Amino acid sequence: NAGVTQTPKFQVLKTGQSMTLQCAQDMNHNSMYWYRQDPGMGLRLIYYSASEGTTDKGEVPNGYNVSRLNKREFSLRLESAAPSQTSVYFCASSVDRGSNQPQHFGDGTRLSIL
Amino acid sequence: AQSVAQPEDQVNVAEGNPLTVKCTYSVSGNPYLFWYVQYPNRGLQFLLKYITGDNLVKGSYGFEAEFNKSQTSFHLKKPSALVSDSALYFCAVRDDPYNNDMRFGAGTRLTVKP
What we know:
In chain A, about 0% of the residues lie in helices and about 50% in strands. Chain A has no helices and eleven strands. In chain A, a hairpin with a 6-residue loop joins β5 (about 45-50) and β6 (about 55). Chain A is globular, with a radius of gyration of 13 Å. Chain B is globular, with a radius of gyration of 14 Å.
């Protein structure tokens, strides 16, 4: 019962490098999300995909891009990493964005930008 | 816009004592309220939710929460704390039907001492 799987779990980058964070869910959920978690700030929404084929900006989208590859997979790309993007990134999914059901989270990717 | 506040960064209780983690919210419509728990190096795990109905909601691991509309609060409670309850707790709110985004509080670190 995997739920939401994120890869990699840890990554260290140099300023200016690019990378893609991968996320996959096996719950047949329509909606998927990318958050970042910083100390004392809770979770902030970067991008979401309400359904397959759609993506939209969240609260803090600058410096990121996303791709909803299919219903299961939703990736987050940093084109030119900056130290301010050092954070823990969480992918989540839910039945539908507007439903009263909870979101399900992966275990996160811990990203350090030097 | 919806907002949620967790007024305490840290809560310390002795094992066996009751615990309360506080949450207040602000919405324009009907609040969908959620509590999540995060253990070290893990993602958020859903504990319980309030959508409508009884003000006292029961969830996983013996936790419960009380919805108070007049005080716009949704405090998490447990009658007898365990050392294993030590974790980071997040309150979240969605403003139905005005906003489909889930807004998270900054988190409260609960420490239960033996």
